[in-house]
Amino acid sequence: MSISEQLTGLRTAISNALGAIDGKLRNKPDRGEIYTRDYLSNGENTLGAGASRAGRLTTPRAISLGGDGQGSVSFDGSGDVTLTLTVPALADKANAADTLTSEQVDARIQALIGSAPEALDTLKELADALGNNPNFATTVQQQLGEKATKSRVDALEQTLAGGFADLADAFRDGITQINSTTGA
After folding, report:
1. What is d(CA 142, CA 55) in angstroms, rounded to the nearest whole number?
2. What total number of domains does the chain contain?
3. Counting runs of H as helices and runs of E as strands, what totals does the chain give?
4. What is the distance between the alpha carbons of residues 135 and 147, in angstroms, rounded to a whole number?
5. From CA 40, how far away is CA 48, in angstroms rounded?
6. 115 in a domain, yes or no?
7. Within a domain: 109
8. pLDDT digits over 145-182, tens only?
9. 58 located within any domain
10. Distance CA 95, CA 108 (A)
């Protein structure tokens, strides 16, 4: 092979090499567009290295309740947390088992009113019917105590019957005397 042919082959090889190098350089990003080894070695800069802590917050956060509720918990995102809520004002509230709602009270009042005659379906009408006597039960009890017993009534009837019999006898005796007298 002649020198001229060798030089042409060398020139073609160099041209191919420069074309390959140029192609590689064209696809290579600028330094500002790449990550350095030092940058990639830092676990906080890469997804793969940070995957073990990807579910956590860099700085844990405190979650607190305001208002009437009290409670707080620290949360770093690595798992579920339980926040215990306390409401001190609830200690002063009535227990639902011991109380009635306004609807339940209204229903009971309506049931009571519904069973009363229309003329006595308010407290005022009841009070009027009882003579506005605040001691109605005591008054009735006293009046019942003053009622005569059956034995007293029976004794009174016998006394009256005897008195009427005596009175009837006296009238008969008087008539007999009148009839037995002769005129003067």
Report:
1. 86
2. 2
3. 7, 2
4. 19
5. 10
6. yes
7. yes
8. 777 677 778 888 888 888 787 777 777 777 777 777 66
9. no
10. 20
